[in-house]
Automatic annotation (TrEMBL):
Coarse class of the protein's main subcellular location: membrane
Keywords: Membrane, Nucleotide-binding
Included stretch of the parent chain: 1 to 171 of 209
Highest taxon above the source species: Eukaryota
Protein name: Ras-related protein rab-2-a
GO cellular component: endomembrane system
Subcellular location, record wording: Endomembrane system
Family as reported in the entry's similarity comment: Belongs to the small GTPase superfamily. Rab family.
Gene Ontology molecular-function annotations: GTP binding; GTPase activity
Length: 171
């Protein structure tokens, strides 16, 4: 393995959309309903390989900092990508995506890539935000888009692998 890169990603979005669960599912391959997220992990890490290059993916969670505008510039500064999460069963979390997006754009370096994620696809019967709506918003705002479930792990690996590939191919 000749080269080694470090990509930092940040997770943002309303409280309760599943940011900590996505992080835990990706880095520890588990989902715990009763996990105490208030003292939980702040960041997790995974290694992947792209074209003989070892890439360390470091993911930072905004747990406990969900008040708008309270996330500091420092937090965004070195991120290669932002993962903006909403809950497909909660309309307000999708409405607030607009505010989160403005926050990211205001504080991040210009080249930051953003992926919009609709979480909790396992709760299909409670869905209030359609796939098409999410996709349309993402397209309009130049964001990558995917739906996932931190509970079943549907698309969880793919979020990070695809995102790392996008950034790798850009640099
Ligand atoms: P955060 O505040 O954004 O970090 O959200 P959490 O990760 O703490 O999750 C909030 C709640 O949603 C918890 O009760 C989780 O168990 C639940 N949750 C998170 N992801 C999923 C999912 O994919 N499916 C279901 N059914 N519940 C989820």
């Amino acid at each position: 393995m000749s080269k080694k890169y470090l990509y930092k990603f940040i997770l943002v979005g309303d409280a309760g959309v599943g940011k900590s669960c996505i992080l835990l599912q990706y880095t520890n391959k588990k989902f715990e309903v009763s996990y105490d997220y208030t003292v939980g992990i702040e960041f997790g890490s995974q290694m992947i390989e792209i074209n003989n290059t070892l890439i360390q993916i470091q993911i930072w969670d905004t747990a406990g900092q969900e008040t708008f505008r309270s996330i500091t510039r420092n937090y965004y500064r070195e991120a290669a990508g932002a993962i903006l999460v909403y809950d497909i069963t909660r309309r307000t979390s999708f409405t607030n995506v607009q505010i989160w997006l403005e926050d990211i754009l205001q504080h991040s370096p210009k080249q930051t890539e953003i992926t919009l994620i609709g979480n909790k696809t396992d709760l299909e019967k409670n869905r209030v935000v359609s796939y098409e709506e999410g996709k349309k918003f993402a397209k309009k705002n130049n964001l990558h888009f995917m739906e996932c479930s931190a509970k079943t792990s549907y698309n969880i690996d793919k979020i990070f692998v695809d995102f790392a590939n996008i950034i790798y191919n850009k640099t």
